[in-house]
Amino acid sequence: MGAFATGGRVAANPFARAALCVVGNINRDIKVQDAPASPALLQDGETSVPSIIETIGGGGANSACAAAALGARVHFIGKVGDDALGRQLQRALARHGVRPHLKRDRHCASGTTVALGLENGNRHFLSWLPNNQTLRFGELDLAALQSCQHLLRADVWFSPEMLERGNERLLAYARKRGLTTSLDINFDPVWSRGPAREIRHRKQLLRKVLPLVDLAHGNVRELCEFTDAHSLNDALKKLGSWGVGSVVAHLGHRGAGFYRAGKFVIEPANRARAEVHSTGTGDVLSICMILLESNDTLSIQQKLRLSNRVVREFMEGRRELIPAL
Description:
nine-stranded mixed sheet, four-stranded mixed sheet, single chain, 15 strands, 10 helices, UDP-N-acetylmuramoyl-L-alanine:D-glutamate ligase, alpha/beta
């Protein structure tokens, strides 16, 4: 797949120009596909499912691996435990073409997420991530940014120290050195069960860094919840007023959208004929748009169309973007 159709033309790989640094979560993913959406899952018993696979995980690590598989030059900054799983994750990154810059901490373990993909299309994640939760700004190997054009900060909610001040310091450091920046506004686990006061405080902490963000990413539910908006249009307007340059919106079966300066462009989904992978699709969409960000030869519509095509090929199992362990 060395050539890419871009609205009637076939061009050389447009993703290969980019040099990207990702800071985010890294862990093991146990992925369960097409589990029945049944109350029986909450009761004693056993349920057979079509497949269970083990891959590298974490939004940051997924994004880094997808970018490398698409041909970009990629550095990844994160943290693992000083254990067998941490070493296995580091080897998986390197094998996949990502240059890892990992803090190895003997005082914590490398974590695991169980990703439940249900037959009705819903997903639920069960996570134990001590390595990602204890990540601190002082542990980041910022030398990795020197040869990069863009910084993606993924998994912004998991480390309390990074949320309090670290994200702001990281994004400011990248901006000062001439990098453009992305922020993935994914689902905060505290939103499900946390007290309202804590949720408000955490949202305010992240909103403070938005003037340092060129490109924000999220699905409709995430963007509306983060902005306390009743509709996607309201959420996009709020993000713009808070300082975000542009927004990549994941619209699910509707496709993908791009918002900038009051204009929202939508490209319909390129529907998958089969669904081999149901998790990681948002990471793939975002990484495609990040890698195409500085490509002036493509329109926004063409970038969205090409990104949707890559997502479809990933879902159908025709692009191996996230490595197995």
